[in-house]
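for ur thesis appendix - 4-amino-4-deoxychorismate lyase. copy paste whatever u need, i formatted it the way the template wanted (i think)
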Amino acid sequence: MAQQFVETIKIVNGKTQALAYHQERMERTICKFFPSLCNASMPSLEKLINPTESMDFYKARVVYGEQGVEAVEYAPYFIRNINSLQVVADDTITYGYKSTDRSRLNALVAQKGNRDDIIIVKHGLLTDTSFTNLAIFDGKHWVTPRHPLLPGTKRAALLDKGMIQEADITLEDLRNANKVSLFNAMIEFGEREIAMENVHF
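the 3d part is after this line
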């Protein structure tokens, strides 16, 4: 099956959010996997996405592959209710580019039991949840894993603004944290925070 990748862009009141970060990641992915498309005819998300004023809180899903952009879809977005997390380990998982193939992630999610989602640990260090980047609050600073599975667009923006810091985060660091924040292109920093009593090891 041909490889496909996706960008999920937040639309608020008819306006796209953080488009430059998504464009940069899409271009980096295309140049890595489809070098024949890595030229002046690179797709432009600004031209591809045409939100309407009625889209108050929507996501635009742009799917692309070796033939270029294959689909642009719009749908209302509802933030998942995440209140508990299960720590799981996988030392071989990779998801460095936003592929439509989430089979390895889904296999780990199957280990969550009655928790709402997972925190994935690789070689003893925190990475991501199944669908967001994360940061822990150590009492002074918000710290995000130095090596996430997928470097997200919201994570990049938060780092650029100095709102979070990168570090290697161990399980001991997680146990000593005050709380965990989950964020991605659709979920703002601070919208989903998990108390430590709801993080299960």
